[in-house]
Amino acid sequence: MSLFEGPDGQKRCGWCAGAAEFVPYHDHEWGFPVSDDRRLFEKLSLEGFQSGLSWRTILNKREAFRAGFANFEIDAVAAFTQADVDRLLADKGIVRHRGKIEAVINNAARAQDLIAEAGSIAAFVWRYEAQAPAPPQSQSTSPESEALSKALKKRGWRFVGPTTVFAFMQAMGLVNDHAEECVSRAKAAEMREGFNVPK
């Protein structure tokens, strides 16, 4: 597995070499466990938008997405109307894809249902935490991502295929997929050890 040596001389996951903005995202967000429902919903939404595109495109548009989608506050997005869809389709700052925009609005309503069912999105998705993960960055799906994808689809979520869900799980710390020699792997492992899995 390739590694990237950052400006501080520390080794990081090789994908950090793809763009300068990947380094702070990698160092401060990617792979660290998250239990906040707003952040989990945002990430699932953005991973859906990434489908067929690069993460760099989505990351560089993230602030515009947040502005357009009410900071991904679930109740606010669930209340969006056709006027909001039209507004977003005219927003040059985001990816203007009708199906993906409508999926986020649909998924916000499904998220409300999931919260009513499980208590929180976090309590639901963390049931699918990787118990015996494969070697880091060796796969694009996993048995857990396939199971979570199936569970979400059964509840009416859209743009949540196994690959999209696995990328979500990597980013939100449900699996520690930092490279073995990456400076962030031990930090992610330590955070996972101290993380209270939502119930």
From TrEMBL:
InterPro entries: Adenine_glyco, DNA-3mA_glycosylase, DNA_glycosylase. Pfam families: Adenine_glyco. Signal peptide: none annotated. Gene3D superfamilies: Hypothetical protein, domain 2. This is DNA-3-methyladenine glycosylase I.
